[in-house]
Amino acid sequence: MGAYLLRRLLLVVPTLLGIILINFAVVQFAPGGPVDQMLAELKGQGGSTLGRLSGEGQGETTGPPRGESGGNEASRYRGARGLDPAVVREIERAFGFDKPWPTRLGEMLAGYARFDLGRSLFQDRPVAQLIMDKLPVSISLGLWSTLIIYLVSIPLGIRKAVRDGSRFDLASSAVVLVGYAIPGFLFAILLVVLFAGGSFVQWFPLRGLLSPGLENASFVTRAADYAWHMVLPTLALIIGGFAGLTMLTKNSFMEEINKQYVVTARAKGAGEQRVLYGHVFRNAMLLIIAGFPSAFIGILFTGALLVEIIFSLDGLGLLGFESAIRRDYPVMFGTLYIFTLLGLVMQIIGDFAYTLVDPRIDFEARR
């Protein structure tokens, strides 16, 4: 197992490099860019933007960015029409676009090797600091949603498998499929309308993870307020996650229950609970438990964008969306780098979880 894990860890580097190179190449052909964004802002605000680029104002000056696309000719940018070419060149220099793309790519990769993700073009803050500031929101949503989905879906799926074809099975299937049919963002809007001051009552807050003024409160008070803030966003995320895992659990147990070793165990006089949890459980739960890391990453990084927007939660989903809209390439590529790295590591953890659930699995023996 050790040699297998070492090989998987070594494969992380070329895989990560390939993903970054592909996305960097795609960005080279994408229309628009941060220079276009700044030129449009410059035309709309006069000289104030250029003053900020020169360090005379607040917050827009940056060091050389990493991972951007763009060219060196003023005529390349549609927003440059009617502007002094010297102004365009100053913006290119401030954003690092005066360098050819191989140089920018090399600087980006060298920084990533040191876990230096560069600085945001439009927020004048290190990308790593931006990610760390947004991470608590996304981890809260992803962790609690994944845990609740597993804690509810697995017992429910086992119960449905044991009582297959009963009224309970049919009724619960109808409920989870209806929940699956409702998009998470639509359910989030419904929760806001019903319980967050939309049209009925205002039992839950809509913004942030902590109410204003509670920063110095006791731990118990802050924990209770945090849980109060997390109720509606977590419900919006988990409503559609029950169906898939519940049905997967049921089908896994049904497949194992019908196998010959279960019939043999029952013929030897083993009780139903011993058969179910002593023989069936380990085999049926192999795929489900080992898939937990991937499920957590999926909810953490891809499932919370609209929920974050609806509940005004400033997390990684909203950060990635805003950086894509503004063409803030250091943030785009920095988040891509972190997300991809975590995803690859979680896949390795998932493989390792297989061996924990069932020690009979030996990846070294595979051909």
Automatic annotation (TrEMBL):
TM region positions:
9-30, 135-158, 170-196, 226-249, 284-311, 331-357
- CDD domains listed in its UniProt record: TM_PBP2
Keywords for this protein: Cell inner membrane, Cell membrane, Membrane, Transmembrane, Transmembrane helix, Transport
The source's domain of life comes to: Bacteria
Q: Where is this region: Disordered?
A: 50-78
What Pfam families does the database record attribute to this sequence? BPD_transp_1
For this entry, list what GO says about its biological process.
microcin transport; transmembrane transport
Q: What is its main location?
A: membrane
Signal sequence segment: none
The residue ranges of the ABC transmembrane type-1 domain are 135-350
Write down the PANTHER family for this protein, in alphabetical order. INNER MEMBRANE ABC TRANSPORTER, INNER MEMBRANE ABC TRANSPORTER PERMEASE PROTEIN YEJB
Q: What is this protein called?
A: Microcin C transport system permease protein
